[in-house]
Amino acid sequence: MTVKACVLHKQNDLRIDDVALADLGPDDVCVAMSYGGICGSDMHYYQHGGFGPVRVVEPIILGHEVSGVIEAVGADVRDLEVGDRVAVSPSQPCFDCAYCAREEFQHCVNMCFMGSARTVPHVQGGFRSKMVTGQGQCFKIGKDTPLANAACSEPLAVCLHAAAQAGPLAGRQVLVTGAGPIGALCVAVARMHGADSIVVTDLFDFTLAVSEKMGATQTINIGADQNGISDHVAKHGPFDVVFECSAAEPAILSAIAAVRPRGTIVQVGVAGSLSLPINAIVGKEINFKGTHRFHPEFEQAVDLIDRGVIDVTPIVTQTYPLEDAVEAFQTATNREKAVKVQLKLDGMI
Q1: 263 phi and psi, to 5 degrees?
Q2: In this structure, is residue 140 part of a structural domain?
Q3: CATH number, domain containing residue 128
Q4: H or E segment at 113?
Q5: Can you give the pLDDT at residue 271?
């Protein structure tokens, strides 16, 4: 049997292909896919053929922010049934290496992450009309939770893991640099944890307006107001925690200047080599922390969305049928009108 899939053959060569549906193993489920969110890494693959040393060298099905409905279950599947509505986790650690033994699953040396070109053969992703996957990848949602919202579980899990690096957020002054999907969800997580104020910076009023819907107490368009952060610090004092979500060198520099001594910067956005003022980091004793993916946070994210604790609806700004994937990717690059663009994987809007 074949199904429709969004396949990247090489840089700027995205096609809707017929691909084989894998056989159903005893511990597997077949998911009729519903929604898939276009991530920054998907756009890097499409626009640039990869990022850093990771390159697309063979056709790859993109997508790792997905949801759907169970269509068939293997003989040994016990906790899932046909008709269950699920968010599908793309994180597939080996559970056997030294990092997995320490429960640092996000650093698994044998990680198979859906839609990733890090290994050859590439790990195929979830932008397809049906997919066979392990039962452990699927997390149920209630009948009233939109499947489009469930597909946001992966980026929310990224932000939950980032928040875990920041320490307590209750009563803190928080700065979020970059108002894309991850920045907007970091706002929601900070609000959930009781941050006293959440200031968001970006270059676009459209994305900043979405951050306000997610709980930002103040937004600053740094293109229009280059002194906005320093003016805020002068009036209200420095920030306790910064979630740096843009990966832009000027934003990182502003974060270092704006955080208080012994404050924390969580670097969420991914970039290449940058020039940073090490003296300022040392002199202020800044906790400069990286954050990478997630693992247990995926189930937490599904639960928070399912219970309505975090409403992800405002970040989903456009939805396209699978056959219009090229247009969807082009829209996703336009941050003047898009935050999170999703594909409707069964082709029905």
Answers
A1: -75, 180
A2: yes
A3: 3.90.180.10
A4: strand 112-113
A5: 80
Domain count of the fold of the chain:
2
3-state SS, residue 46:
helix
pLDDT at 349 over 60: no
Peptide bond into 53 cis (omega under 30): no
Higher pLDDT, 279 or 271: 279
Residue 180 lies in a domain: yes
Residues in CB range of 142: below 8 A, 6 or more apart: 85, 306
Asked whether residue 300 is domain-assigned, the answer is no
Q: What share of the chain is helix, strand, coil (3-state, %, to 5)?
A: 30, 30, 40
Are 126 and 167 in a shared domain?
Answer: no
DSSP code of residue 123 = B
Judgement on whether residues 143 and 164 belong to the same structural domain of the protein: no
In the chain, the percentage of residues whose pLDDT exceeds 90 is 96
pTM for this predicted structure? 0.97
Domain-located, residue 26: yes
Please give the average per-residue pLDDT across 162-169, as a whole number.
98
pLDDT average, residue stretch 236-242: 98
- Domain span holding position 256: 156-290
CA distances from residue 131 to 4, 33, 287 in whole angstroms, order as listed: 10, 7, 41
Residue 345 corresponds to which tokens in the numbers above?
Answer: 């994987």
Supply angle C-alpha 117, 120, 121, rounded to 5. Answer: 95
Residue 347 pLDDT exceeds 70:
no
Asked if residue 261 lies in contact with residue 239, where contact means CB atoms within 8 angstroms, the answer is no
Instruction: Please indicate, yes or no, whether residues 183 and 231 belong to a single structural domain of this protein.
Output: yes
190 and 282 inside one domain: yes
Q: Are residues 27 and 146 in the same domain?
A: yes
Between the alpha carbon of residue 128 and those of residues 62, 101, 183, 330, the distances in Å are 9, 33, 27, 19
Cα gap 234→278, rounded to integer Å: 23
Per-residue pLDDT band for 273 (boundaries 50, 70, 90) equals confident
Output b/e per residue, 307-340; b: 16+ Cβ within 10 A. Answer: eeebebebbbbbbbbbebbbebbbbbeeeeebbb
Asked if 25 and 44 sit in the same domain, the reply is yes
